[in-house]
Amino acid sequence: MRGNISYILMLLFFSTTVTLVPGCDETLDFANNPPGGLSISRDKCYLGPNDTVVLTGQATDSDGDEISYSWTAGEGTLTPADGKGQVVSWRAPDSHGTYRVTLHVTDGLDSAAKGIDLDVGRNLDILHEGGILDQTDYPYIVPNALPLYISELISITIQEGVTIVFNQGTGGLNVSGTLIINGTEQNRVLFTPNVCPGDDRVFGGIEFNGDMASGTMSYVTITSAADGLAVKDGASLTADNLILDRASGAGLSVESAASATISDARIWDNGSGVYVANGTLHMSNATVRYNVNYGFSMIRTAGVFDVDITDCEIANNTQNGFVLAGDASPVVHNCSIFLNGPTMEDLRTVRFINTYYGMTPVDMTGNFWGVTEAFEIQAQIIREGANGTVDFSGWLTEEPSGN
Q: Each residue of 380-400: b (16+ CB within 10 Å) or e?
């Protein structure tokens, strides 16, 4: 009898359901719950051929049982080779494609599994021959520490749905020739550093440089760059439906006799919004918001300065709406300009820094300023010893439709 009791107790320990007495309907349920809450994190979101990614698994067990982790991969190489451990590394094959790595967890009684698909792209390390980038089933990976160079007389076309990833913080795209980007509303073109959500890494951005540099862009996103999009030294750019966000510096800059025509842009959450120095900018139907330093900073000291901003929204920039220096005098019409400044009590819509020497009023007529009285608008114009003035006559009492 003692032996039978011991046998039943062993069954109770190892079985899900055990009948205590043969022929009796009453049972005790000792169900084991398998591990749950499986998740996989990785230290990079884009891979090139033979790149290595670190994978970390996580799971929970409602019974408090100890969890063991292991990994399998049909292709590529795991380290350690047996795949055991909560953290492993996986080296991609030398060809592009989508590869699955699977996390397996067990509490000694039950198991669970979760897979992750890892996209391996194609390395893009030279653009000296021109041509078309049109692959959309995998990203192009730029491994270079130096920017990719599009030289004079060379033309590169990037088709809709293409993603270009920069592995190095100093990598980017330097255009002295022609760059044409044909994104669509459904399939934007994306330029990004090799980041996962929440990561703060950046890349060098896209720069047009020189009087032979030109570009046209539609439906393009440039995210997490040092300086998002720069047009310099006589270069020209026409762009629509841009998203320029999370740059550590300026989202957009136009400098030194360069010219840019921008429509339907969103320039948000950058270190600074738009910088213009001795250049030409025609901007319409854009939103410039939530930038840390300023919405617009403009300076003219010599040469051309031709800036008009229409039907735009300039709001919630942390320090300033417009910062003006030299004799910069933009034309700003039919825009919504509000809540720019550190606090509600310290709004700085227009700030003339102490080197400003313009002699004529800045034309900012016919805009909505977030307030309705002239003295309230006047209070948002800051002078640091400068004599700058703003013509804000004909101000609107509500936001223009469409802004």
A: bbbeeebebebebeebeeebb
What is the DSSP track for 244-312?
EE--SSEEEEEETT-EEEEES-EEESSSEEEEEESSEEEEES-EEES-SSEEEEEEESSS--EEEEES-
- Preceding peptide of 80 cis, ω within 30°: yes
pTM of the model: 0.85
Nearest CA to 164 out of 145, 186, 136 is that of 136
- Cα atoms found within 13 Å of the Cα of residue 367, Cβ hemisphere only: 26
The residue ranges of every structural domain in the chain are 1-31, 36-119, 187-391
Give the type of residue at 332.
Answer: V
pLDDT tens for the chain, 403 residues: list them. 434 434 333 333 333 344 434 444 555 566 889 999 999 999 888 899 999 999 999 999 999 999 999 999 999 999 999 999 999 999 999 999 999 999 999 999 999 999 999 989 999 987 877 899 999 989 999 988 899 999 999 999 999 999 999 988 899 999 999 999 999 999 999 999 987 766 777 899 999 999 999 999 999 999 999 999 999 999 999 999 999 999 999 999 999 999 999 999 999 999 999 999 999 999 999 999 999 999 999 999 998 999 999 999 999 999 999 999 999 999 999 999 999 999 989 999 999 998 899 999 999 999 999 999 999 999 999 998 778 999 999 999 999 976 6
**Residue 221 CB contacts under 8 Å (≥ 6 apart), including other chains:** 188, 189, 190, 191, 192, 242, 243, 245
Amino acid letter, residue 241: N
Answer whether 358's CB lies under 8 Å from 388's CB. Answer: yes
Q: How far apart are CA 284 and CA 354, in angstroms?
A: 29
Q: Domain 36-119 class? A: mainly beta
Report the distance separating Cα 270 and Cα 273, nearest Å. 6
Contacts of 278 (CB under 8 A, 6+ apart): 255, 256, 257, 299, 300, 301, 302, 303, 304, 305
- Do residues 224 and 246 make contact, with C-beta atoms less than 8 angstroms apart? yes
